[in-house]
Write a structure and sequence with these properties.
There is one protein chain. The protein is of the alpha/beta class. The chain folds into 2 domains: 137 residues, Rossmann fold, CATH 3.40.50.1370; 159 residues, Rossmann fold. The protein is 42% helix and 15% strand. The protein is built from 12 helices and 9 strands. It has a 5-stranded parallel sheet. It has a 4-stranded parallel sheet with strand order 2-1-3-4, with helices on both faces. Helix 7 links the parallel strand 6 and strand 7. The longest helix has 22 residues. It is globular, with a radius of gyration of 19 Å.
Length: 309
Amino acid sequence: MALKDLISLNDLTPREVEKIFETTAAIKTSPLDFREALAGRSVALIFEKPSLRTRITFDLGATQMGASCVYLDHQGVRLGERESVKDMALNLERWVDAIVARTYSHETVIELAAHSSVPVINGLSEFTHPCQGLTDYFTLTEKAGPDLRGFHIAYVGDGNNTCHSLIFGAAKLGATISIGTPKGYEPNSEVLKAARRQAKATGAKISVFNDPFEAVKGAHAVYTDVWASMGFEAETERRREIFSSFRVTKKLMSEASRGAFFMHCLPAHRGDEVDAAVIDRKNSIVYDQAENRLHTQKAIMLLLIQATQ
């Protein structure tokens, strides 16, 4: 891979996405073949936000490939408060081979990457969630085949960081994505503009609706996320009222294609963004997504660290 960092899924070429998927599949199929792939390497995990999947899968993933991990808890003191982001990057690059950052500000990840000679991986920012998006589309290739051109994924809910990564991913892979969100909560206009430019080359189709039933109509997969992402907890009650008609119910799923998959990046709030009867049904693949975070992130770390050696 020519790319040094993974800040946004939009930074990847379609071929680089394919390479990540190929490496993910190889790692998942034969994990023991990669147990020494990062022997002697080290990864710093910098987390401003709480995490289950991101922290565990990066830590285990690095360890399973022979690397060591160091966890820097910044939930109490934000990055840049005690020491500048620039100085943190310039220190860490002397000690570790990659940096994973889970931050409130996307600009923090960009600044870390600008001053670091080792790869910086966005473990989640308020703008985008590239590791989740790559995992989601890899999971769909397992379920629907390697070519996702024409595959229709519907996202229902807040036009947030996960939504942005799904849009970028669809544009890279030639998939169809329809977004259903309340008026005023649509995805970032610059994200849509950039993705639609890419879509001209790949044949992807990207549309936004303020009616969840329109968005879901004929979809092969229906995806949702929490209504109030981290950093927006104060808006929980207000958003619950605004988003109440965007809950993924059995009735909403009936508008999708027969046998459509249900997807969620987790954690899920049953009774808010999704009904238990949907997330706990047979065609829910949320735990496949969660498992694949491990394999996909192992591929990302391996490819980026190898590319900078």
